[in-house]
Amino acid sequence: MPADLSNEKRALRAELRERRRIMPSTERDAATVALTENLERLATDLGARSVAAYLSRPEEPDIRPFVHWAHDRGIRVLLPVSREDGLLDWAPYDGGEEALDPYGMPAPTSELLSPMAISEVELILAPAACVDSRGMRMGWGRGYFDKTLGSMEKRPPVYAVLFDSELVDEVPSEVHDQRVDGVVRPSGILTF
Predict the structure, then answer these.
(1) For residue 2, what pLDDT is reported?
(2) Which positions, given as ranges, span the membrane (predicted)?
(3) Full residue range of the structural domain in which residue 42 is found
């Protein structure tokens, strides 16, 4: 990766982390309610019976209420577990205990499935630092979701979950970066 691009991504990620860090709790709580409604609508409109999601970290848009909602309605939810080789294993959400994976990411403690398990889902919800108006997603720099999405032969709709201010004009991108089909924000759902 060229040094300029690496520095540009690093600076943008730092700015976005700081915005998330200083977000008032009332704004964060309102965003969670609106995101949950929009995620429920997206899953319902797509008729999704299985979803790949993730367990939000405290600074991320909180999708845990959606994960609970989907599980309570019999929608199969797969959650990622980071591996040392840069791939993601998947585990079904069972409403049970959580742990931290080796990289400090929240992960379920249920049965571990292979990276191929994601090929069975009908909707993928991906974390993101930001997404641009072309659907180019920028993650947090580890490349797990880019590798996963790039390796899928047939992939279902992929939506990044963002706060409203994280839909930007342009994201610095490289060949391996993967686009998403849309974004879910507190203000609504946008499909590219």
Answers:
(1) 59
(2) none
(3) 3-191
